[in-house]
Known about the structure:
Helix content: 25-40%
CATH topology of the largest domain: Rossmann fold
Oligomer: single chain
CATH architecture of the largest domain: 3-Layer(aba) Sandwich
Number of helices: 12
CATH superfamily of the largest domain: P-loop containing nucleotide triphosphate hydrolases
Number of domains: 3
Radius of gyration: 26 Å
Shape: elongated
Amino acid sequence: xxxxxxxxRPNVGKSSLYNALLGYRRTIVLDRPGTTLDLVREKVRxxxxxxxxSQGIFDEGDAEALKExxxxxxxxxxxxDAQSGMTPFDKWLHQEIVKNKKPTLLVINKCENDNVxxxxxxxxxxxxxVVEVSAAHRRGLDVLKEWCCKQAGVSLETSQDESQKPIQLxxxxRPNxxxxxxxxxxCRKRVxxxxxxxxxxxxxxxxxxxxGGKTVRxxxxxxxxxxxxxxxxxxxxxxHASTRxxxxxxxxxxxxxxxxxxxDQDMRLLSLLxxxxxxxxxxxxxxxxxxxxxxxxxxxxxxxxxxxxxxKTQPMSAKTGWNVDRLMPWVVKLYDQGQKRIKTSDLNRFxxxxxxxxxxxxxxxxxxxxxxxxxxxxxxPTFIFFMNRxxxxxxxxxxxxxxxxxxxxxxxxxxxxxxxxxxxxKR
Length: 427
């Protein structure tokens, strides 16, 4: 699959154009140079090709970043700004690009006026193939897509086969929990920037790897915490992007920094995962730094201990790689569990056996009885139980049913949902 990289100086509209080509907001767009830091990779929906968004190249001091972009791409989309016109740095950047002799398209962005052509303003660059676009107004995108498809040797598609979509894995946690270090370790290369400075990762950084014959798309997200001020717009955008990545994920890795005490933000993230019913592995990072007594004290906290029982937990060290090789098989296992369906006949035989062993308790003027059950969806697996009467089945019995389903029907470590309805609603 060919990779197409958007290259240009800061604030020529690369991220806006990137989002427009994808059809959704994937990267943060702010009128501030240097907003995008990492190299962002994404497969487009309309063709079998990869689109890369890069940081804006400020000057020759960004030579390493430019080298990374150039080596990662097969084709360049050189983006310039129609409103500011040609600049000396556009010329320098083009000279660096042409040294690599890769196909290049000049993309003149911010061409809001249909009646004015800006091609001649950039003619001295000598790039033969040019397209004028307006990312803000979605103008010229079809021509740009067709050119990319021609270069990739693929056809323009309108939809993606659901069976070909990769498993979405989100790495989340508060700032400096070790997400980017783990991302690089799992991908076996540097794809995410690692720094002791909080919020170095802003846009979710993605990378695809093969696990057990399936494609897994890893998403390294910005550290999620409450911004100290509403004015911190960049951090707010980053957190919103991370939260969106979590909601779209099939499986989640939550990193906990065990070298520090559990914080309110860790507990909020655990509560969010519980509410979203996301298949989750809690990764106890820096576990190797703790003594035996410190480990016992760490998991002794009652609130945290409840989540440790609910989710799969794995002690590990992203920095040294200790236990990292155990993580990815869990992604496929949890994903497959989430897609599992139980036949209605098998489910009702199971329910009959469960209630014969432990009948529902009496409440008020009569007994509860389960008449019928059905699995109505996957991801998360959701089961509806039809009752002989209205009212709430005691919570303790609901937990009993949930545990029986998890342990006996192959949903262990998988969040599930149970719904209860009165008998007349069955019809």
